[in-house]
């Protein structure tokens, strides 16, 4: 799928993608700067989209580590399966509400998310954030890209420590929430 096809898909499904454009390389680098993916054993990405964050993860991830990418848009899933054929990358065409069904008893070092929580139902948000927290190791981090600082209060309901970082190097400018 070409970038123009991906953009058409993005705008056709804005209610589920929640973005006006894909994450910039600068935003991806900012998000991933709060991780040590070379030491991770299991990483979960919520909202794979066009694969821009996925590519950043794969570039930093040890080949022995596993990456589970959740995406509900079937067109994005098919494109990512072609883009990331590595055996340690699993593209899961399912809701992030079902994380636990795919963990096989494992715990993740990081849950990296670009989900549009302001567009997801309260029940869906609650399910995703509870499962994300339970999926993490005790030292694990949930890291979220979002466009509103007000979402910090949402994450504070689930995580005891939440730091907000800001970057102008994205359209629109964005926050990275680091939750422990």
UniProtKB/TrEMBL annotation:
SUPFAM superfamilies (UniProt xref):
S-adenosyl-L-methionine-dependent methyltransferases (SSF53335)
Against CDD domains, the record matches this protein to: AdoMet_MTases (cd02440)
Q: Which InterPro entries does UniProt cross-reference here?
A: Methyltransf_25, SAM-dependent_MTases_sf
Domain Methyltransferase, by residue range, is: 43-140
Is Methyltransferase one of the keywords UniProt gives this record? yes
Annotated GO biological processes are: methylation
Alphabetized GO MF terms: methyltransferase activity
Q: Which UniProt keywords apply?
A: Methyltransferase, Transferase
Keyword Transferase listed: yes
* Protein name, UniProt field: Phospholipid N-methyltransferase
Q: Which organism is it from?
A: Algoriphagus aquaeductus
